[in-house]
Specification:
The complex is a heterodimer. The longest helix of chain A is centred in the first third of the chain and has 41 residues. The mean pLDDT of chain A is 87. By secondary structure, chain A is an all-alpha fold. In chain A, helix 1 runs antiparallel to helix 2 and helix 1 packs antiparallel against helix 3. Chain A has a single domain, classed as F1FO ATP Synthase, CATH 1.20.20. Helices cover 72% and strands 4% of the residues of chain B. In chain B, strands 1-2 form a two-stranded antiparallel sheet. The longest helix of chain B is centred in the C-terminal third of the chain and has 36 residues. The radius of gyration of chain B is 23 Å and the shape is globular. Chain B starts with 14 loop residues before the first strand and ends with a helix. The model of chain B has no long low-confidence stretch (mean pLDDT 84). The chains are: A mainly alpha, B mainly alpha. At the A-B interface, helix 2 of A face helix 2, helix 6 and helix 7 of B.
Chain lengths: 91, 247
Amino acid sequence: MDSISLVAVVSIVIAGMTMAVGSYGPSQSMGQAIQQALSAIAQQPDERNSLTRTLFVGLAMIESIAIYCFVISMIVIFANPFWGHVIKAGG
Amino acid sequence: MEIVGINQISPDQVILWSWGFVTISVTILYTWLVMVILVVGSWLVTRNLSNDINVSRWQHFLEVVISTIRGEIREMTKKGADKYIPLIGTLFLFICLSNVLVIVPGFVAPTSSITTTAALAICVFIAVPFYGISANGFFYYLKEYFQPNFIFFPLHVMGELARTLALTVRLFGNIMSHEKIIGILLSVTPLLFPVIMQALGLLIGVIQAYIFAILSMVYIASATSVHEESHKHEKLQNAEVSEGVTA
């Protein structure tokens, strides 16, 4: 296997692995956060506005981890910095 | 009609017109389009405002929007909202409109390019010390960086930079990923399913605009409120001391 196809294979596999591993943790923690927020709203419906706002801010914080993984896998697939290096080295 | 191809990660790469070092990409075109819609629309509505019983329906619409934003901000800061509503309201309206207009065929959301979202996040990055200094004074704002002690100064600076990066990448990643998902779905199941995903995309776009505005409001509020709390604390301590003296 020459080095260009090696880079391609590694990039595709790593992109899939990044999404698989990187979306597991955030999805678990977002589920827990929503569960806690729902039970809190069920206990105190008067505090609904402030709970919902805090929930959204927290979900955005958690979600950004998954978004980082997604952006990195996009970079690996579409804008891989190693392509240029390998193609230049290969001639 | 597909303007941004599936293998292009950003609409900056699609250049419509270039002369010398001046290039007009798709992002710039649609950013200006959204700005023109916002400015001309609000100019047309606010040109003849009235406070009669009979109010035009567009004035009702703008009043609802503005009073909702103002209510949200007032609920977060527990103070007046008029100081923050130009920045936060503009950010929300711009992001919301450019995310919602995606349903128009041929429109590419300017927020799906990382340059636009970086510019918006840098606005927030500059606005936080601006509001902080104007609320508390320069030295109180600077003292906040050395808060527990001086070792924490690099951590505070890194926190500022990291949350700017997080604001940038969150908005960009959400909008761009949704465009790519719709593009992939169009090639796999072309008829009905992309419509449902686009309806979901409207919801995601509005929620992301809300989150961007709320997060920048949280950052600004955390920069402006510190001094008052410490001031209140000092006052409380003084009151306790004086009570002790009188007792």
